[in-house]
Amino acid sequence: MTKTFEKLAFQCSEKPSAIAAKKELVSRYGNVAPAHADAIISLGGDGFMLETLMRNMPLIRKGLPVYGMNRGTVGFLMNSYNEDDLPARLAASAAAVIHPLKMTATGAKGNVSELAFNEVSLFRQTRQAAHIRITIDGRERMPKLIADGVLVASPAGSTAYNLSAHGPVLPLTSDILALTPISAFRPRRWRGALVKASAKVVFDVLDPIKRPVSATADNIEYRDITRVAVEQDIETSLTLLFDPNHGLDEKILREQFAT
Question: Which residues are known to be catalytic?
Answer without folding.
Answer: 46
